[in-house]
Amino acid sequence: MENSNDAELLSAFQDYAREINTFRLRIGCILGFTLVPLFSLLDYYAVPHHFKTFLLIRLVSSALTLLLFLFTFTSFGKSHITWVGALTAILIGGTIALMTRYLGGYESPYYAGLNLVMLAISMLFAWDVRITAAICLSMYTLYIVPIFLYDQIERAEILINNNAFLISTMVIGLTSAYFISRLRYQEFESRYKMEESRKALEVSNQKLRELSYLKGQFFADISHELRTPLAVIRGEAEVTLRGKEKPVAEYKRVLHYIILLADQLNKLVSDLLFLARSESGVLHMEKREISLQEIIREASREGEILAMRKGIMLTLKESAEDELFLQGDPQRLKQLFLIVIDNAINYSKMGGDVELSLEREEGRGKITIADHGVGIPKEAIPHVFERFYRVEKTKSMANGTGLGLPIAKWIAEAHEGKITIDSEMGAGTRVTVHLPLSEKVKV
Description:
alpha+beta; Heat Shock Protein 90; five-stranded mixed beta sheet; two-stranded antiparallel sheet; 12 helices; HATPase_C_sf
């Protein structure tokens, strides 16, 4: 992860440096194609006998610099801005080196122009110091090689003096470039990390706001879920007490209804306690070796009762030939499967069907619960395992508080397994649970 972050930081810095170099190269080009011709005024007073020749050289150099300036606005130029910058610097340095040839080579005072160019590229651009060194050495080569090839050095002290200043300028410029480059990178790194921290805080704040909103919705739903059955129980009891005597069957109906509502309240309270205990770490699994088939069959039998009420066909298909065993808590695993089966039935249409299947897959038990109900919107799938979350479009189809799937996920992960959901609106939902099997059945 650290290497990945370093690579992202380096890539971001390179993009930043490219933007700086593009802008500064354009400024450098503007200075180049204006100052180079303006220095012809110096030629006019210092070397009037070379004025016309130098003016032509300067105008050609200025025109080429202008072309390079325009080239920086092309997509190719932007993507190769370092090469364009190097070529621009070498062009101006080469122009100065060429003029020194007309003025006595190693004796020419025009070598001082190279000092200016070397210092400019060392200070101005956000290049790697090695690139700056290569450009400075290229310009120095254009100056020094013709001297050794063509000049007869009669006054070595002038050669030594001029080269001492050139080499010193290079060393000072490159040293400055190195420290400026380091400082620039450190400043960028600080800003980059601050921006990353700001973004992370923004994401955290957004999540906290969402959590606060979901908790508010949750407590509103819980309040409704608690008050509704209590109000109905109280209402039924009051009507029964105050009304005239009714047939035994009517009393039984009322009592059955009260029991049903009491069961709903009990389930709600149980879910809340489960989540509270799982968060505090006091909920422990009583694991032992159990048959996965037996757990699935039990859950299927209990699910059939609810399915029959809605006229839904619940079928179980087992493709594993031998018995599948795992280390697990039978009560919690059955709870997991019943949560998913209950959801599949509740969100299926009357007369629909729900299919359970069990198979072995790479040393793991694979349990699939598929329905052909309303489905889940694609954008909601990443959130269905979040506590308190309920799919907005399906809220009216079934009672619930958004606690079931988070509980199912916790149980699956407590058994070193996982639970996934694949769904499509109008086509149904497929929930898959993978659980690790005991070693003896993996062969």
